[in-house]
What does this fold into?
Amino acid sequence: MSALTHLPAPVGPAHPAGPATPPRPVLVRPSTSTGDIEDLEARFEPRPIPAPSPVPEVPDELESIARKVARGALEVLGGTRPLQQMSRLLDARSYERLQLRSNLVRSIELSQNALPTGTAMQGGAVRLHRNVMIRSVRICPITPVVFEASVVAAEQKRVRALALRIERWRGQWRVTELQIG
It folds into this structure.
């Protein structure tokens, strides 16, 4: 514990700008030189380290969900899968973002492939199949009902990374966040 004491007012002429200052409280600490080593040791005794919290187990179906969503999302972007097939696996926000991105990809492809008149496509050939190969899937538990997954997928000309947040919602696993690199 500490004690507060008051120092006496300074002796001598008052400050020319005003009256003498009132006494200031000063913090006085009690001396610890009493030789109470046990008291000091008790203060600095190491505390036990808490045991780490158990890591939630990853359900087996999460890897297949991550694979399905990654393959489906890349096929939607490629134009070989209808977006409606993804509605059961994605929440509304992720579904809308995938739809927006798919529409942007479609408009870019149309503007690059359009003839100067803008009435027909140059190649005329439509890609019938987009071969997406899932290279790896890693799943990290956040809570017992929330998991994050990273997926590496290879297409014809490039390799892409996808990040997914999968949450249990009304008894079903749903992707609540989808990032495509």
Strands lie at 3-6, 25-28, 133-143, 146-154, 159-169, 172-180.
